Amino acid sequence: MPEHPDPADALVIAGEKFSSRLIMGTGGAPNLEELEQALLASGTELTTVALRRVDPTMQGSLFDMLRRTGIRPLPNTAGCFTARDAVRTAELGREALETDWVKVEVVADERTLLPDPIELLEATEQLVDKGFVVLAYTNDDPILARRLAEAGVAAVMPLGAPIGSGMGVRNPYNLAIILEEATVPIVLDAGVGTASDAAIAMELGCDAVLLASAVTRARDPVAMARAMRLAVEAGRLARLAGRIPRRLYAEASTPFDGLADL
Amino acid sequence: MTVTVNGEPRGFPDVVTVDGLVTALGWDRRGLAIAVNGEVVPRSLWGDHTVLDGDQIEVLTIAQGG
């Protein structure tokens, strides 16, 4: 088993500490049992949930499972296309879970699921005014990230690539600009396809990674959850350790001094 | 009195509050959130908020997603 992450290197969002830097989504799992096993294998302490109409025929309760495992639920506004709907959904999430935390996402269309920046900023400003702790899912746009931080979000969560695309971090240069001027934690959210994507996000300096489909839709979700846990830890350690610079030509690791004259 | 709950019409014999409606539905009330005609009714007001004939009621809970 992996060593536990250094407790002194906790992720802190709005004053709350998390020893795991992997935030999981719950979407895409075939059933609650597999989801529970995957969440446990991931080591996550925070997981997003959606708000939907009660289905009295539903087997098992996500609410009970999260209580049992002690994983903190983070209600989101998935499925919202307008600021108005996102604010209403956030208010419903606050009532359902008795938490002020919300992951705000306001997407532009179903084909790309890309955030609508205008509606997102509007929703964020209203939610901050209403006292929510807002974690904002956003495009990898440094200026929008700056505007969200100025609006008072607790975390900026830029995408690596569209939701569920598994394309990884497509614009590491934009991400680097976002990270350079970050004033709140930056969470790479969406686009992770496999473990190396999560590691790259952490190596680039992200504070955490949020993913769902890469685990829940993997052939073996539990194994992939563990892979993601290790990748996030490895990426974090590598970031802190300080990588060597990239060079075009070799730099010998073995000294030429003392070489035999043959 | 007839109200719409999650898109389906439902009849109630008497005047009910939101709290009474949740009891009548028989659903687990933990983790629920309720909106009446698009406005969220905080849990603390469930006992005071009277449901009116024709109200559109949404009863939501957490689900897998995101």
Topology:
The complex is a heterodimer of chains A (262) and B (66).
Chain A: E1 11-13, E2 16-18, E3 22-25, H1 32-42, E4 46-53, H2 62-69, E5 72-75, H3 83-97, E6 101-104, H4 117-129, E7 133-138, H5 142-151, E8 155-158, H6 172-180, E9 187-189, H7 195-204, E10 208-211, H8 213-216, H9 221-241
Parallel strand pairs in A: 3-4, 3-10, 4-5, 6-7, 7-8, 9-10
Antiparallel strand pairs in A: 1-2
Chain B: E1 2-5, E2 8-11, E3 16-17, H1 18-25, E4 33-36, E5 39-41, E6 50-51, E7 56-63
Parallel strand pairs in B: 1-7
Antiparallel strand pairs in B: 1-2, 3-6, 4-5, 4-7
Characterize the structure shown.
The complex is a heterodimer of chains A (262) and B (66). Helix content of chain A is 39%, strand content 16%. The longest helix of chain A has 21 residues, at 221-241. The mean pLDDT of chain A is 94. Chain A starts with 10 loop residues before the first strand and ends in a 21-residue tail after the last helix. Chain A has 262 residues and is of the alpha/beta class. Chain A is globular, with a radius of gyration of 20 Å. In chain A, strand 7 (133-138), helix 5 (142-151) and strand 8 form a beta-alpha-beta unit. By secondary structure, chain B is mainly β. Chain B has one helix and seven strands. Chain B has one helix at residues 18-25; strands at 2-5, 8-11, 16-17, 33-36, 39-41, 50-51, 56-63. In chain B, strands 2-1-7-4-5 form a five-stranded mixed sheet, with no helix packed on it. Chain B has a two-stranded antiparallel sheet with strand order 3-6. Chain B is globular and about 40 Å long. The chains are: A alpha/beta (262), B mainly beta (66). Chains A and B meet through strand 4, helix 2 and helix 3 of A and strand 4 and strand 7 of B.
